[in-house]
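Ticket opened by: R.M.
Priority: normal
Category: complex prediction / small molecule

The reporter submitted a protein together with UFG and asked that the result be attached to this ticket for the collaborator who will pick it up next week. Submitted input follows.
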Amino acid sequence: MKKILVTGGTGYIGSHTVVELQQQGFEVLIVDNLSNSNIEVLDNIEKISGVRPYFENFDLAAEAATADFFARHSDIDGIIHFAAYKAVGESMTKPLAYYRNNVQSLINIMEAMRVHNIQNLVFSSSCTVYGQPDELPVKETAPIKKAWSPYGNTKQMCEEIIEFTTAATNLKTIALRYFNPIGAHESALIGELPLGVPNNLIPFITQTAIGKRECLSVFGSDYSTPDGTAVRDYLHVVDLAKAHVVAVNRLINGKNKKNMEIFNLGTGNGFSVLEVIEAFERINNIKLNYKIVPRRAGDVEKVWADTSFANEELGWKAEIGLDEMMRTSWNWEKKLAGKA
Ligand code: UFG
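Result attached by the on-call engineer:
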């Protein structure tokens, strides 16, 4: 049984990936400091997969604790590194926290990989590295634009650290650039747990629908898009989780063509904010209270992925459509509120 370390494994994308890994016969170890997740996620992972993953709670940005962990678990076959801060707005006010957490943890992990000859790393990157791309759909070869936020900058920096480190060592890495992951597990046992007022569109929609928020603000209707609202490539978190299993398998089986590979993960389809609202209302038979307000600072107008490289090279393709994303997001919110 291959052993995979999932950092940030009790988080949103991490927990879904743990389930997919377990269901495909991997042994999973989780490290998470629970800074943006809950220990009960382990119970829910176990309810879905029937297996409780091994778990340790510490901060991977702490060098000694990380080195100690790897000294005890040097037989790991691959690492999927999710653990990071991810709120764009927060990163503007706490840049150093973002650099320390996101960059230092990667350095500590790669150092441990080097010391213990653990070769395979899958890294969580983001389409934010592209900024507003000049050409759509955006390909992996598109230029990296100057980052708009410390969060985005940490993803760019981490990709560069990986690139130079893989060139100097025998480490093999796949960086996955996610577009907008949304939705929740079909079981409604795991999903996104936003702290406080959500920044992201889908949790704000579901919290408005459940009555936790009064009204959804649609940020901008004067973009150069068909209905004037901003366009994103939303993909279901379970499709995204499956891509991680494919990626780590590719590395373990030596199928990678370069020591660092980069793949876009999206559906390849762009949807506007109003189209997302329409899908949510239709599939769940709910009327959503929303209003148009001015643009949000820092938002790009439109971005969606060219997924052909991931489709052809990884053999992975997103399969779940927008309606299912909206249905599972709503089921999850109802479950959280104790209504389902
Ligand atoms: N939006 C609203 N109202 C809201 C929240 C969002 O209209 O209350 C709009 C945004 O303006 C944007 C779209 O919905 O047009 C999606 O916004 P999200 O905040 O859900 O997602 P972003 O595309 O802004 O951000 C996501 C991830 C980041 C990542 C970024 C890369 O959250 O981690 O994509 O583009 F960096």
